[in-house]
């Protein structure tokens, strides 16, 4: 189960690198199976050490 979650988070990270600025973070999480934005944000921060929004900013 953890492998699948990490794989989904990796796909979210890739999507954040390529996302348009107007694409909502929750939409990216939802696309990869996270139905709750707070759960997505918490899981992303645990895996990558930064929030999805901060990750997106750093990738610009």
Account of the protein in words:
- One of its GO terms (molecular function) is sequence-specific DNA binding.
- The protein contains 4 helices and no strands.
- The chain is globular.
- The model has no long low-confidence stretch (mean pLDDT 93).
- The chain has 60 residues and is mainly α.
- It has one domain: Orthogonal Bundle (Arc Repressor Mutant, subunit A), CATH 1.10.10.
| Tally of domains | 1
Strands, total number: 0
Distance between the termini: 31 Å
Order of helices and strands: HHHH
Q: Supply Rg.
A: 10 Å
What is the topology?
Elements (H helix, E strand, L loop, with lengths): L1 H17 L6 H7 L5 H12 L3 H8 L1
Helix pairs in contact: 1-2
Brief summary:
The protein is mostly helical. It has helices at 2-18, 25-31, 37-48, 52-59.
Q: Which descriptors apply to this entry?
A:
single chain; mainly alpha; 4 helices; globular
